[in-house]
C-alpha cells in the first residue's frame, strides 16, 4: 500500500473528538462554538482543542484512557474545593472520553522562562514566578491528608515498589538499549533492587503530582495555575521538587536550583538534612523516567524532537556524578551514567548548545596541584617556572600578575610571548573540540613558584582570549591570593 494511503487509513482510524466536543459545548453553553482549534500535541495520547464563541474560550480535551480522565476530573474538583489554582471543569462526557475545562491561556512557565531569559542566568521576574510555584507545591502535596480520594489514582495509588521498577525498566529498555549504552543486565537489575529499597526509605505520605514541570504550569496575570496532575498518587515529596528543578530543557543553573530548593523546604516546613538524604536519588529516578520517555518517543516512535531534551538530561547527569554521592552503592547503574555523560552522540541532538565553561586557575606548585572538583578531569596544567620571574625583583615582589608594572615586565619578554603562543595553540584545539561535542567543562591551570606573578599573568591572558575568541564562559581564580579575578 502506498505511504499516503497508509497515512490516510491511520487518520481515518484515529478517534475524531470534534463532534462529541461540539455537542458537549452546545449542551453546556446553549450554542455551537464559533471556532474549533487543535492545540499543539504533547507526548501523551490526549488531544486538546480551543473552542470559542463570542466572549468565551474554553479548552476541550479528548483522552482515550477513561481511567486517566477520571483521575484528572476528580482531582480537579477536589483541588478547586481546596482553593488551589487549577482549571474549572465545566462539563464531561466520560463515556465519550471528552470534557470541557477553563482556558488558562497559552503561557507556560517554560515559555515565560524562554522569553525572559537572555543568557545562562535566570532573571528576577522568572525567579519570582518559580518561587510562587514552589510555595504552592506543599499545598498540593498536603492533599493526601485533606480528604483526597486515592482510589481515583491511576495507574497506581502510590509511588511504590511496582511504580519505581516500572520507571527503572522504562529507562533500561527505552533509553539504555535504544541509545546503545552497554550494561550488564544482572548487575543492573541488582542495582535496581538496591536503589528501590533506598527510595522506599523516604517518607511517602504526600500527594505526588508526578509531572510537576514547567510545561504543566500556566501563568495567567502573573500567577501560576496548575494542570496535568492525572498521574498523581501517594509518594515522597522529593520527586516533585526534582521534576521542576531538573526539568531538562529549562536548564536551571545549579545555584538557582539550590536557592529554589531552600524556598521549597521553608514553605514545606521540612528539615534540610533529613530531606537531602534521599533527594538526589529522587533526582536520578526522575531523570531516568524522563529519559525513558525521550527514548520511547524519539528512538522508538521516531518523533525526533523529543530527543532534543537528551543533551540537557546528559548535562544534569554529569552534574550529579560530580556533586551528589548517594548513600547506597549502585556500581553498574553509575557506570551507565558515566557512559551516558561521556557520550558525544547523546550530546548532539537538535541544535542544543549546552555551553562550555573554561575554568582557569593560577597556583603555586609549593601548595600542590588544583583539584578538578567540578569537571570531568579534562584539561591542562602548564608550568610557568621556566619563564622570567618578576618576583625576584624588589619593586615587583608585593605586586601580582594583574598589576601593570608586572604585566609590562612580562610583555617585554620574548619567552613569555612564545610560551603563550604555544598555550593558545594547544588550548584552542580542546576548546573547539569540546564546543563541537557539546562538552561543558574544561580546566586549565597555570603554576609557578609563588603563584602570584607568572601564573597569574598567563591565566589572565588565556581568560581574555577564550572570552574574545569563543565567547565561552570563563571561571577565573587565583588560588594563592584573595580577591576576585578580573
Structure description:
With 486 residues, this protein is α/β, with parallel strands linked by helices. It folds into three domains: 16-102, Phosphorylase Kinase, domain 1; 109-347, Aminoglycoside 3'-phosphotransferase, Chain: A, domain 2; 357-478, no CATH class. It contains 15 helices and 13 strands. The strands form four sheets. Strands 1-2-3-5-4 form a five-stranded antiparallel sheet, sandwiched between helices. Strand 1 (35-38) and strand 2 (47-53) form a beta hairpin. The protein is elongated, with a radius of gyration of 27 Å. The model has no long low-confidence stretch (mean pLDDT 93).
User: What portion of residues is helical?
Assistant: 40-55%
So, CATH architecture of the largest domain? Alpha-Beta Complex
How many separate helices? 15
As laid out across the biggest beta sheet, the strand order is: 1-2-3-5-4
What's the CATH H-level superfamily name of the largest domain? Aminoglycoside phosphotransferase (APH), C-terminal lobe
Low-confidence stretches: none
Number of structural domains = 3
CATH fold descriptor of the largest domain = Aminoglycoside 3'-phosphotransferase, Chain: A, domain 2
Write down the CATH class of the largest domain: Alpha Beta
Structural class: alpha/beta
Rounded radius of gyration (Å): 27 Å
| H/E series | HHEEEHEEHHHHEEEEHHHHHEEHHEHE
- How does the overall form come out from the CA principal axes? elongated
Q: Largest sheet, if any?
A: 5 strands, antiparallel
Oligomer: single chain
* Share of residues in strands: 5-15%
pLDDT average, as an integer?
93
* Terminal Cα span: 67 Å
**DSSP summary, beta strand count:** 13
Amino acid at each position: 500500500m502506498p505511504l499516503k494511503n497508509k497515512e490516510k487509513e491511520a487518520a481515518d482510524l484515529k478517534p475524531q473528538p470534534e463532534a462529541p466536543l461540539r455537542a458537549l459545548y452546545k449542551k453546556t453553553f446553549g450554542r455551537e462554538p464559533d471556532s474549533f482549534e487543535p492545540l499543539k500535541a504533547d507526548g501523551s495520547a490526549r488531544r486538546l482543542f480551543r473552542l470559542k464563541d463570542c466572549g468565551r474560550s474554553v479548552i476541550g480535551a479528548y483522552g482515550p484512557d477513561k481511567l486517566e480522565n477520571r483521575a484528572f476530573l476528580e482531582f480537579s474538583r477536589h483541588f478547586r474545593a481546596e482553593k488551589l489554582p487549577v482549571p474549572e471543569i465545566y462539563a464531561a462526557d466520560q463515556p465519550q472520553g471528552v470534557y470541557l475545562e477553563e482556558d488558562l491561556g497559552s503561557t507556560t512557565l517554560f515559555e515565560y522562562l524562554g522569553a525572559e531569559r537572555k543568557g545562562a542566568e535566570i532573571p528576577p521576574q522568572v525567579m519570582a514566578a518559580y518561587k510562587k510555584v514552589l510555595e504552592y507545591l506543599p499545598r498540593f502535596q498536603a492533599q493526601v491528608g485533606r480528604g483526597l480520594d486515592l482510589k481515583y489514582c491511576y495507574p497506581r495509588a502510590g509511588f511504590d515498589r511496582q511504580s519505581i521498577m516500572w520507571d527503572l525498566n522504562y529507562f533500561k529498555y527505552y533509553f539504555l538499549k535504544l541509545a546503545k549504552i552497554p550494561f550488564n543486565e544482572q548487575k543492573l537489575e541488582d542495582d535496581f533492587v538496591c536503589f528501590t529499597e533506598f527510595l522506599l526509605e523516604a517518607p511517602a505520605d504526600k500527594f505526588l503530582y508526578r509531572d510537576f514541570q514547567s510545561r504543566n504550569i500556566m501563568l495567567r496575570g502573573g500567577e501560576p495555575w496548575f494542570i496535568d496532575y492525572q498521574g498523581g498518587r501517594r509518594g515522597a515529596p522529593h520527586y516533585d521538587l526534582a521534576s521542576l528543578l531538573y526539568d531538562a530543557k529549562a536548564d536551571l543553573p545549579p545555584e538557582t536550583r539550590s536557592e529554589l530548593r531552600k524556598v521549597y523546604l521553608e514553605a514545606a516546613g521540612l528539615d534540610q538534612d533529613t530531606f537531602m538524604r534521599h533527594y538526589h536519588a529522587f533526582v536520578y529516578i526522575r531523570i531516568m523516567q524522563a529519559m525513558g520517555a525521550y527514548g520511547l518517543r524519539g528512538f522508538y516512535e521516531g518523533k525526533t524532537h523529543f530527543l532534543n531534551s537528551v543533551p540537557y538530561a546528559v548535562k544534569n547527569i554529569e552534574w550529579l556524578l560530580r556533586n551528589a554521592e548517594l548513600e547506597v552503592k549502585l556500581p553498574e547503574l553509575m557506570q551507565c551514567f558515566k557512559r551516558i555523560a561521556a557520550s558525544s552522540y547523546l550530546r548532539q541532538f537538535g541544535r542544543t548548545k549546552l555551553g562550555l565553561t573554561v575554568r582557569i586557575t593560577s597556583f603555586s606548585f609549593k601548595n600542590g596541584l588544583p583539584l578538578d572538583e567540578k569537571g570531568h578531569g579534562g584539561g591542562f596544567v602548564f608550568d610557568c617556572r621556566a619563564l622570567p620571574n618578576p618576583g625576584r625583583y624588589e619593586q615587583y615582589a608585593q605586586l601580582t600578575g594583574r598589576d601593570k608594572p608586572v604585566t609590562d615586565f612580562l610583555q617585554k619578554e620574548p619567552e613569555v610571548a612564545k610560551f603563550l603562543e604555544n598555550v593558545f595553540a594547544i588550548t584552542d584545539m580542546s576548546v573547539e573540540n569540546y564546543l563541537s561535542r557539546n562538552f561543558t567543562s574544561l580546566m586549565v591551570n597555570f603554576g609557578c613558584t609563588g603563584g602570584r606573578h607568572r601564573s597569574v599573568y598567563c591565566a589572565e591572558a588565556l581568560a581574555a582570549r577564550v572570552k574574545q575568541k569563543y565567547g565561552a564562559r570563563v571561571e577565573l581564580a587565583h588560588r594563592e591570593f584573595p580577591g576576585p579575578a578580573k
